[in-house]
Each structure stands twice: as C-alpha cells, then as structure tokens.
C-alpha cells in the first residue's frame, strides 16, 4: 500500500523565485536575485594526454565559426559526426570539441551514451529524454511518460537555449539521434559512433572520420603517457611498440602505463618481451600489449580483471568490486589500484541526471571496450572452475542487499515478499545518509540492477531475480516511462513462476501491469491483473495473503480508472476495501475509501463522493498520514466546489497547500495554487487568481536537483 514520500529540493536558496504561502491572501513572490540557474555540464574531466587530431579540430572549429557567424540553418542545430574504430579516440575528441563549443553554446552541455540503455540493438530513447529533461531542470513529476510527449517537452525546453549535446555510440539517425536533436539552431550536436549514420542526409553534418594515429603521433602519445620525453637510442624500439598498438590511443595509453611501471628494463627489453608474446601466441596487433600488462598483475588483480569483464552494467562502484572479488576490502582495493595504475580501468565521475552538483560525484569504474574484450578472452582461458559463477552470484546478492536497504529507506514501511539478504563477509555496505541518498543510489544503479535481474534469471537464481524487482518498483514510481521496467518485471514474473512461488508471481504481475498501462498497453495489463486476481483468490486466509489479494484487486480497479471506466473500477475497489477491513488494515481501508470517492466523483455521484472522501480525510488525519491527509482534503475540496460549497473548498485547499509546503512538495504546491487561482477567478477576484498563478510559475521555474516525491501511492 501507499507510503508517504518526501520531495527534496537542493541548490542555493537565492536561485530562482521563492514562494511563501500560508493563507492565500498573503502570497509573497520574491524575484530572482539575478543569478541565472546553473547550466548543466555533463562532461568528464579533460583527459591528461591528448595527441594530434589537429586537422579534425580545425575543420570542426571552422564549421562552428561559419555556422554561428551567420551561416546557420534556422531549421536545425550544427551537427558534427565523429566516426572510427573502437579505441581510436572518438569519444575523447567529442568531449574536447564540446568544451570548445561551449563558447558559442553557453547554456550547457548534455551527454548520453546510447549503448547504456540499449537492448537487442534498440536504445530506450524515452529514458534518455527523461535524463536530459531532468538535467535541464525539469522536475521529475513534470516529465510526461509517453515518448511522444517527452519529445515535445524536450523540443520546448531547448527551443530558446544554446546547448551542446554529445551523443555517444550512435548507430542510426532516424528514431534515435534525431529525437535528441535540440530545437534551437543556436545549438550544436556531436554524434559519436563507429560510422556516420547511413540515414543522415549527406551534407547535413560535418563528418570527421578518425583513423589510427600516424607513427609519429603514436610515438609522441606513448612517450608522454610513459613519462619519457625522449628514449634516445631506443627510438626505434618505441616506434615498434607504437606499431604494436596499431595507432589506437586506447592501446597506447595501456602500453605507456606498462612502460612506466617497468622503465628500468629499457625500451629494447620491453619490446623483446612483447615480441616473444607475439611469436608464442601468434595473436595480431594489440593483443601482446594487453597480455603483457595482464601478466604483470598480481593474482587478485588478474582475477578481478577477469570478473569485471562479465559485470552486467557499463560501470561499477568500488564497493561492488569488493563483493565481486570476494577476498575482502583490503585485497580488492589493492587490486583496483593495480588495474587503475595499469590503465585497465578508468575512474569516471557519476554524471547522472539526478546527481547533486553541490555534492562530490561518486567514483565509478569503467572498462574500455577493447580492454573488456581482452578480459573476456582471458576469462575464457584462465578462469578457474566456478570463478565466474561465484563472482556473478556475489555481485547479484550484494546489489540485491543494497537495493533492499535503499528501498526500505526510500519507500518506508510497505509490504515486501522477498527475504532480506544478509551482509556479505568482508564486503562493506553502501553508507546511505538518509532517504534522498538511498533513492539517488537506486537511480544511479538502475541499469546495473535491471541487468542483474536478467543475469540472475539466466543463471537460474530465480529468487534473486524477482526479489530485485521489488526495489526497482520504488524507482519506477518516481521515474516512470522506462522500457527496462517492462522487461525486468516480465523476467521477474517468469522467475517467480519458474520457482513456483505463487505470492511472488502475483506481486510481479501487479508490478508489470503498471508500466504496461502507462505505455497504453491496456489489454496486456488487464491479462496480467486478471491472472493475478485469480491466483490471489487461491491464497490462504492469513494477513499477508489477504493483503496481497486486496492489492491485486486495487491494481485491477486502478487499471479501469486509468481508462476512465469508473463504474468498472468500483467492484474491485469495494472488494479490496472489505478485505482490508477483515484484516484490520486501517491504512488500506483509508486508501480504498479515497479511491472509491474518486470513482464516485468520476461518475458524477457527488454526494457519495463527498461522503467517502470526507471519511478518508478523517481517517488519514487520525493515522497521521500527512501526505494522504493533504491529498484526500484536496480531492474533497474539488468535490465540495462542484457541490457549490466554495468556502469549505477554500479551507481544504489552504490546508493542502500548507501540508505541501511542509513536505516541500513542489508538484502538489503547484497543483493546489492553480486550483486556488481557478476558485478565485470564479469568485471574481482576478488579482488573487493572478497571485496564485504567479506563485505556481515561480515554483515551476525553481531549479531542482532531486525529486523524491512520487505521484502515486506505493503498494
């Protein structure tokens, strides 16, 4: 059942307009201080060593000068397409260009790696749009769910901004990159991918195909990373080593780190070691560089290297790496240091859309695609029996434990079915410093958690697979509209069915139904809920079984309400209410009374609606449920207004506004202020109505970093 959630607004209190509202006659709107909202900048720190690409940069900057100097096409932004082999430095150049483009596009830089949300060749553009809207300051509760609505909102938000948008791992233009183009011709877009999208019209973009570095520039980069400005008599050895790296900056950086670690051996001896590796194994191009670096690692670092290759998410946190290795925190930390020193791991900041820019970004670990491919080859040949499976299980259980802890902090007390995972020996838990931090962790780790659902199912870990879906439900309520939710909840349902766990299967079907109906897949949602209700009717008479049955009925009623079929919703609501009364669950009784009141209002049965909502409002106050007290009072006020009782409605609106202000819930404040404006307008007081609307506009424009409020009740 639903639990109260809180909204958290971060940032400088002087930024934007501030609204104070007690009684509506005293609305104070303080004008902005003149300091503009923070422009997003989703770029990682500049890479330490960068070599050449002078011609490509010159072409890009000339195009920028021509475009913003008066030659821009008013119908679209400037597009720069960077293409080339994996490891050739496409993304690094894209970031470098983006920093320079900021001079012409001062309203911020947005970044998205389209491969992070890609499944079976298709990326979740709706989720990318949500991230970008959040980065642009749009509160979570104002981000609409359908892809088409988000796209319109994105165009509206970018129409008058001069932005730089960097899109990594672009595979096609239509249906992918095209939907992420900002609407302003004063913006610039950098497309990064293996090739310029074939469906991008010729002449629309400045194309920058990257080739491997020339030998001269490859040697220069190698020497700079190695910290050896001039190898003197070993110049030819350095050139040969650069040739073994095939001119790929990703390989040259690893080789340079390897040389730095063994500089006392001398270039000639190091080259001889690589030549022997090449002769013995007969592997082409860069493989000797990876192998030499790998063999230099200590045993724990080699094991962690192999395990990291199979990590389901694109990045991993240091604490998760401790769980993955399973040898204790100290050993894992030393192994991570070795991998970082060797250039096999990149430390990257968390640039997610809900990150608080006033906090230090979380450190994340990422493997370059070339390195990951090599680590997978080493795992195939070197991993001991059970090594990969053991690491996978530890990793899944650690993520499940942290997700359950975050869920408990973020959602509060609610019905859950999965057993709590105990602490893993020698592996620290995440230090959640309150509710906001817990919810932020769920958001940051969402892709890893979704991947863990799938990996657990494929490994036969059915209990872990569906259990991960319970905390993902909490995330889904606050961040709806992701295709991952449908995929994961479908897998969770299948895992519960395979495990023959009937209560879990009912729970998973209910969870799956919601993102289905939010995607307007009503028939599919209906089938899931019919199956859930039928199965729940077979459960026993215990408290949890009856509560689960009541929840399934409530979901099915809500599905009808979502489609405006209020009369069809009422029987399920009434049945659910009776079950809550039988098990003496006062919160459930209050919630279903509220839903029945909403249904009566939808059916224009206003007297009955007022009676039900009045009773629900009194119950919420008695239960000291502040959020539901405000919600039920606001709904009752709307009905009373329709019954011609504006004075009573006015008092309830003001009480709801006070409650929303105490909880710092922006969306609820805006909703009540707009309703008050409508009321004042009907009463012939345009000045008071305008005050309310001005206060609502000011709240909408206030920068928000993280919204913990949920638009719906939590089951």
Topology:
Blueprint: E1 18-21, E2 27-30, H1 54-71, E3 78-83, H2 90-101, E4 109-113, E5 118-119, E6 122-123, H3 125-135, H4 147-158, E7 164-168, E8 188-193, E9 206-209, H5 215-226, H6 235-244, H7 249-261, H8 267-281, H9 287-296, H10 299-309, H11 318-325, H12 329-341, E10 346-349, E11 363-366, H13 369-382, H14 387-411, H15 435-444, H16 446-458, H17 462-478, H18 483-498, H19 502-518, H20 522-536, H21 543-562, H22 566-582, H23 586-602, H24 606-622, H25 626-642, H26 646-662, H27 666-682, H28 686-701
Parallel strand pairs: 3-8, 3-9, 4-7, 7-8
Antiparallel strand pairs: 1-2, 5-6, 10-11
Helix pairs in contact: 1-2, 3-4, 5-6, 5-7, 6-8, 7-9, 8-9, 10-12, 10-13, 11-12, 11-14, 14-15, 14-16, 14-17, 16-17, 16-18, 17-18, 17-19, 18-19, 19-20, 19-21, 20-21, 21-22, 22-23, 23-24, 23-25, 24-25, 25-26, 26-27, 27-28
Task: Name the descriptors.
715 residues, Serine Threonine Protein Phosphatase 5, Tetratricopeptide repeat, Rossmann fold, 4 domains, five-stranded parallel beta sheet, 28 helices, 6% strand, disordered N terminus
In short:
This protein is α/β, with parallel strands linked by helices and 715 residues long.
Low-pLDDT runs of 5+ residues are: 1-36, 703-715
The averaged pLDDT comes out at 84
Question: Could you describe the largest sheet, including whether it forms a barrel?
Answer: 5 strands, parallel
Strand portion, in percent? 5-15%
Shape: globular
**Oligomeric state of the chains?**
single chain
Radius of gyration: 29 Å
Specify the helix fraction band: 55-70%
DSSP summary: helix tally: 28
State the end-to-end CA separation: 3 Å
Structural class: alpha/beta
Kindly report the CATH topology of the largest domain. Serine Threonine Protein Phosphatase 5, Tetratricopeptide repeat
The number of strands is 11
Tell me the strand order in the biggest sheet. Answer: 4-7-8-3-9
CATH architecture classification name of the largest domain = Alpha Horseshoe
CATH class of the largest domain: Mainly Alpha
